[in-house]
Amino acid sequence: MATLQVLVVDDEPGIRSGVVRILQNFTVGYPFMDEDFDFAVIEAGTGEQAIELLNSRPIDVVLLDNKLPGMDGIEVLEYINKQKYDLAVMMITSYASLDLAIRATKNGAYNFMPKPFTPQELRASIENVAKHLFLKRMTRKMQAEGKQIRFQFLSVLSHELKSPLNAVEGYLKMMQEKQLGDNIDSYATMIDRSLARLKGMRNLIMDLLDLTRIESGKKERRLRETELPAIARQAMDTMEPYAIQKNVKMTLQSKGNTTLLADADEMEIIFNNLVSNAVKYNKDNGQVNVLIEDQGKEILIRVSDTGIGMSKEDTQKIFEDFVRIKNQKTKEITGSGLGLSILKRMVEQYNGTIEVESEPDVGSTFTVRIPRQ
After folding, report:
1. CA-CA 20 to 30 A from 222: which of 8, 195, 252, 330?
2. Rounded distance, CA 308 to CA 278, Å?
């Protein structure tokens, strides 16, 4: 239970004590709120007292009369507006006029409530104010979190692009200065490493383009009956040269009706990611098994390998952007860290799920379930 601090500013003691009684034991709750609100009432008999209280403690809601001795309510409201306090103001007055309404609205008053008011009227108005305040604060919080997430994304992206550029620049300067002599063959290792870093950058850019298309919703989807084993076989053929180098054997098994109403390009991204990871993170002389199975209302895709595996902690974060498992076993394996996050987004576009089971030095199994539409 959270408590909202309500400041009632009125020169009539009866009004102030009435608000205290009405809001005592009153709570507000909505399904979208994590917790209900109750209310603590603070009293001020003048505008000056109200400003002292506003400057000395957090206030969430102000019930503000306009007819006050000394400073009137509009002057208090103008002060609140200038100070940009995070609160909501509701005017309570017996002498409402159009001019007052315009001036109050211009200065950010949320609502008007004429005096005298009944307990039901006050509770209904306070309920609306509490909801308005909650939504305003929640919106601001989400906007701030969104900015922070974008900043983190750009920071990581800058690092991922800067590192290979620095490496290639360094190798080129060494060659420009002919540090290893005039024979081009002396620079073969530097050239190979530069090409590898440039290849990594190109893969990262291609993954970013895929990610951008998914997030923007601009990618045109062409749904048609798609033979998933054919897509899987194509992904395996693409990885075959690398699999041969590591002597990794790949098998494909399909059971039942394995056609799915899907975009073939999207299915290709899913299988390419699953199969390439299974080969890249495998051991020499390892095994990759691909299973596509008709399970009635859904299609199951399971890719298992006999590779280096992951800890439980690593499996919980591998679907996040730019996450790569970095250790002694993976230091020679290149990747953008976006493949699995793109894969997960792609599966979710089909209302599907993806799970991973893994054990270090034993292997990993990725299981995708896609419901039939």
Report:
1. 252
2. 10
